[in-house]
Specification:
Blueprint: H1 6-28, H2 41-56, E1 60-64, E2 72-77, E3 83-89, E4 109-111, E5 114-116, H3 124-141, E6 147-153, H4 162-168, E7 177-180, E8 192-197, E9 199-208, E10 214-215, H5 216-219, H6 226-235, H7 259-266, H8 280-286, E11 289-296, E12 306-307, E13 310-319, H9 325-338, E14 345-354, E15 357-358, H10 364-377, E16 382-386, H11 391-399, E17 404-407, E18 423-425, H12 426-443
Parallel strand pairs: 3-6, 3-7, 7-17, 8-16
Antiparallel strand pairs: 1-2, 2-6, 4-5, 5-18, 8-15, 9-13, 9-14, 10-12, 11-13
Bound molecules: zinc ion (ZN).
């Protein structure tokens, strides 16, 4: 034990990194994909190994049964008046196309300071971040100066039942601060809080015009073409500039996205167009964005000269943070119905909805967190928006309305989460471990000037 200073914690985290890397590699070796059809043993092994690691860090641990799902790992440690919930998930995306991986997905490999493997970033880096922060505090202080509860879920990637569990068991989420370590900085070395998440609604639109295909030579002309009707409907989803108009948006106040970097992340040439008007970050975060994500129509191969009697499409609408999802779903469905041309029959079926989130950052814990990030990275933090919606967030905000929610983690844009060659930058992970340890110390009443 030593005096708790920024430097003693920095030193402790540095010394702890080799073991933390080894533990992360151990977790990455377990193919804990919880999607239907994948074996359950690795999922349970990942839960148990995560539990063991937290127990070895001095936490009281249990595997919490979740109705209709995989168990969550819960670990409790510490004292003090501040309650902090530390969230991550131990399940991973499927590996996908094995040939697209430079090294096998479940054989963690170090290249250029990055640890490659499925789940290395999403979200076993989140487990490592919490584990490292607890270990560093234990090493320097001999205890954890806040009441910390780690909650590590096992079915995040496949939309598991934890959000419902939280709604039914609100006691699990009672905290002053909730850290969701399932995101990343906007670039390596750029400390970032994700403070805006888009919501999502989708719907399926079907057009049926005829009971069967009709020979286009004999009937084409007056015979109503379902595919053409569907294309006219879909064409109204964006205006002539490529802007989505179905629900309103608003300007973004946080860090601005860089267009050149954006193009590079997408693998786009500089002369290819981007859709929409106005600031890029508005288009990415605070304005609606519609996509056609599926289309059923006869394939070109084997196409015959017939008027198409039936076609359908799935339409997905990303929503500005804070948009009411039911309102948006109604607006999308009404829009699709109203856009039907020529009086054809259209059936619109509402699909999934996920609530977005606009996070307040003016509380005392955010002050501690901004200070901690600046100490760990040597520069002030920024706020950014992120595309994916996190269903758990809405549940947490409902049951713990007073909690300050923080989305921070080690998944930088180069982490390629959900894609082949997923990886985490180990120095970035080290800085995030330090940032979390410093924040917890400060929340525990230490390290204040
Ligand atoms: Zn994740």
């Amino acid at each position: 034990m030593s005096t708790c200073t920024v430097e003693s914690l920095r030193e402790a985290v540095r010394e702890l990194m080799p073991q933390l890397q080894a533990d992360l590699e151990h977790l990455v070796r377990i193919p804990s994909c919880a999607f239907a059809g994948f074996p359950r043993e690795p999922v349970h092994e990942a839960a148990e190994e995560t539990r063991r690691l937290f127990a070895e860090a001095g936490m009281q641990t249990e595997l919490l049964p979740i109705d209709g799902g995989e168990p969550a790992v819960v670990g409790r440690v510490g004292e003090g008046s501040t309650r902090v919930l530390l969230y991550a998930h131990y399940d991973v995306q499927p590996a996908g196309d094995l040939d697209a991986w430079t090294t096998p997905p479940f054989e963690p490999t170090l290249r250029g300071g990055r640890l490659y493997g499925r789940g290395a970033a999403d979200d076993k880096s989140g487990i490592a971040m919490h584990l490292g922060a607890i270990r560093a505090l234990q090493r320097v202080l001999g205890h954890v100066p806040v009441q910390a509860v780690a909650l590590i879920e096992g079915e995040e990637e496949c939309g598991g039942p934890l959000p419902e569990y939280v709604l039914e068991h609100p006691e699990i989420a009672q905290a002053d601060v909730i850290v969701i370590a399932d995101v990343g900085n906007r670039a390596i070395g750029e400390p970032t809080f994700v403070t805006a998440l888009r919501g999502l609604v989708d719907a399926t639109v079907e057009v049926r015009t005829l009971p069967r295909p009709a020979h286009s030579g004999m009937y084409g002309g007056p015979a109503p073409d379902a595919l053409l009707a569907l294309i006219r409907i879909l064409d109204t989803l964006r205006d002539e500039n490529g802007d989505t108009t179905i629900v309103p948006g608003h300007p973004w106040q946080g860090a601005q996205a860089d267009e050149a970097e954006f193009r590079e992340e997408l693998g786009m040439r500089p002369d290819q167009p981007l859709l929409g008007t106005g600031p890029l970050t508005d288009r990415l975060v605070t304005r609606p964005a519609v996509s056609v994500i599926g289309l059923d129509a006869p394939p070109v191969e084997g196409a015959i000269n017939a008027v198409i009697p039936y076609a359908r499409a799935k339409v997905s609408l990303r929503l500005p943070p804070g948009t009411d999802t039911q309102m948006a779903m109604d607006a999308l469905c009404d829009h699709l119905r109203d856009a039907a041309p020529w009086g054809v029959d259209v059936t619109v079926t509402p699909g999934e909805q996920g609530r977005g989130c606009a996070i307040a950052t003016d509380g005392p814990a955010y002050e501690a967190a901004r200070w901690a990030m600046e100490q760990a990275f040597g520069k002030p933090s920024a706020e950014a928006g992120e595309g994916g919606s996190i269903p758990l967030l809405a549940a947490l905000a409902d049951v713990a309305p007073g909690a300050e929610i923080m989305l921070m983690g080690a998944e930088d844009p180069g982490a390629l989460i959900h894609a082949p060659d997923e990886s985490v930058d180990l120095e970035e992970l080290e800085r995030m471990v330090l940032a979390e340890a410093l924040m917890l110390a400060r929340l525990g009443g230490l390290l204040s000037e």
